[in-house]
Amino acid sequence: MGRSSTRDCSVPYYVNLVNDINALLNHLYPTGGFDALYVSGGSYGTVPAQMLYGAPYDLFPPGRKIVGMLLLNGFSPLRHHSGYAKHLSWNNWASIGPPTRIVPFRLLQRLFKCAVGSKLQSVEGATQFLKATVFDEHTVIEKMARSTVRCCQNWDGFMEVSDTIHSDWGFDPRTLDKEHSAKPVLIVGSENDHIGGSTNDWL
């Protein structure tokens, strides 16, 4: 979901991500004038954080300056996590679990898009959706609803979440070299988080 353009799907997700972050860092620091990078993410954002942390240095030279990673209610690289489905919440099981690998044409994601997308076409609908799912404070909800309506213009990223989590991340965490694995990782979880954190134990 969002307003960004659709990525080039002929290139693996982790390569697109690394290329984008390389471009961003080159734009922000044209002379490479930064000493340290900290990567972090929460829930689904832990996937790109881990991709950057483990990216080969020939593909992501700034990775040498990563000094640590913080994961909040993280997801494991499911391709390497056998038995992951037993640890997923019901919502995650339906959105990224085995059914998404079996049901063709991203049918589950398309159904979700129809169900939720129809509610996010107006500020009123987005407000009702946020009240039902997130919180109930009018001014905050209305502001967030306006932002939600503006951002839900391209669903391509949402449609490939399951594919991305199941994809090759460019490395296997169990076989990272010493230079990568020597950098500290902090994993924070909560038993009350029903979106992320299902696979923190594996991490």
Structure description:
This is AB hydrolase-1 domain-containing protein. It comes from Hypocrea jecorina (strain ATCC 56765 / BCRC 32924 / NRRL 11460 / Rut C-30) (Trichoderma reesei). With 203 residues, the chain is mainly alpha-helical. It has one domain. Helix content is 43%, strand content 8%. It has a 3-stranded parallel sheet with strand order 1-2-3, with helices on one face. α6 packs across α7. The longest helix has 16 residues.
List the helices and strands and how they pair.
Blueprint: H1 13-28, E1 37-42, H2 46-54, E2 66-72, H3 90-96, H4 98-102, H5 107-117, H6 123-133, H7 138-151, H8 156-159, H9 161-166, H10 178-181, E3 185-188
Parallel strand pairs: 1-2, 2-3
Helix pairs in contact: 6-7
Which features characterize this protein?
203 residues, mainly alpha, 3-stranded parallel beta sheet, 10 helices, 3 strands, 43% helix, 8% strand
